[in-house]
Write a structure and sequence with these properties.
Strand content: 5-15%
Order of helices and strands: HHHEE
Radius of gyration: 39 Å
Largest sheet: 2 strands, antiparallel
Length: 117
């Protein structure tokens, strides 16, 4: 009988917090959960910047006419059509800078600097 009473108390005690999201006092909660609404922030307004001067003084570098942009794009695609093997071969051909000094160790593991031959 004592075991049955302990088991019933344990089951009842574990089932009360399961109903806490409903907000009742008998469900293990102290009241309804209410979240504060987010504050109302006005939308950001970005000011426009004006540029003064003549057309000769300022020419946007990113603007091209449609026909000129098509020609420029075709030139860039033709220049960029290098395969990986060609790029690797070109990389191997470039001379690499060599160090002017060499740091080595003597027989007692002391490092010393000597000029590269």
């Amino acid at each position: 009988m004592k075991r049955l009473l302990c088991m019933a108390t344990l089951v009842l005690g574990c089932s009360l917090p399961a109903h806490a999201q409903f907000g009742g006092l008998a469900g293990g909660s102290l009241g309804k959960v209410q979240f504060q609404p987010l504050p109302q922030i006005p939308p950001t307004v970005f000011n426009a910047t004006t540029v003064s001067g003549s057309r000769v003084d300022f020419t946007p570098s990113a603007f091209l006419g449609f026909d000129q942009a098509i020609l420029d794009g075709k030139e860039r695609l033709a220049a960029a059509s290098v395969t990986v093997a060609e790029a690797a071969a070109e990389y191997r051909k470039t001379p690499r800078p060599k160090a002017k000094i060499l740091i080595t160790q003597d027989d007692f593991s002391n490092p010393y600097i000597e000029p590269r031959k």
